[in-house]
Amino acid sequence: MIYRNVExxxxxxxxxxxxxxxxxxxxxxxxxxxxxxxxxxxxxxGFKLSAAILPFTFATYVGSINEDGLSFITTxxxxxxxxxxxxxxxLNAYATYILELMKYAYQSDDLISLDWFxxxxxxxxxxxxxxxPQIITNILEVQALxxxxxxxxxxxxxxxxxxxxxxxxxxxxxxxxxxxxxxLDSQRLHLDAKTVFYLRKFSVIDINRISTINVGDKTKENLxxxxxxxxxxxxxxxxxxxxxxxxxxxxxx
Length: 253
Ligand SMILES: [Zn+2]
Fold this sequence. Notes:
Layout: E1 2-18, E2 22-29, E3 33-39, E4 58-66, E5 72-80, H1 83-87, H2 89-108, H3 114-128, H4 133-144, E6 167-170, E7 175-178, H5 193-202, H6 217-235, H7 240-252
Antiparallel strand pairs: 1-2, 1-4, 2-3, 4-5, 6-7
Helix pairs in contact: 2-3, 2-4, 2-7, 3-4, 4-6, 5-6
Zinc ion (ZN) binds next to loops.
C-alpha cells in the first residue's frame, strides 16, 4: 500500500549514502512510525532539500509513504534544527539513544502513536534547550517500559497495596515492595529512597511541563544504574548510543 502526497511531521533519525548521488534517510514520523526514504540527488551540491534531511531535523514533510518499501519526500516546510544537539557530542548521544529506543519500542509494539511521537519530540527539544539530558532520557525510559511489555507498578506495594514507604523495586514482583515486604525478594534492587522517589515521579510526569531539573550527581548515577538494571533484566535490548553514554559518564564522574 502506498499513500501518495500525504503530509506528516517527522524527525530525521539517520542517513547513509546510497548509490552514486542518493541517500537513504530514516525518519521517525508522527503518522507512519519509522520509515526509510530514498532521497534522489541528495549528494549533489545545491540539493534543494539538503537542510530537511540533516540529522535531528524536525519538519513537516509532504511525500509518498510506502508501507513495505522505500518512501519518498517531495517538499518540506517548518524546518527546525536542534542547534545545541548538533554541536554537542554528549547531547547528540542522548538524542540518538532516545530515537533508537523509540525504534525498538515500535518493533516490539507496532502501534503508531501520536502521543509517543510528541513525547519524543518534547524530550529532544528539552535536551536542546538545556535541561539535563540524562534526567529527560530517564523519564522517557521509565514511561516507555510499558511499550516493551514491562508495566511496573510505581504507585503502591504490589503485595499489600500500601502507599507508605520506604519502597524498593522488585523485578520479580514487577513493581514496588514496601519495607514490610522487602523480605520476599532478596534480589530487589536495593535502591535508596531518593532514587525510588524520582522513579515514581518520572512514571507520571509530563515532559512538557518541566522547566528546571535539579537532581544531585549521586542520585543521577543511581537512577542511571537502576534503569540499566531494569532494561537489561526485563527488556533486553542493545543500543549502541547507550554504551557510548556510559563510557562518557565514567570519564566524567
Ligand atoms: Zn507491602
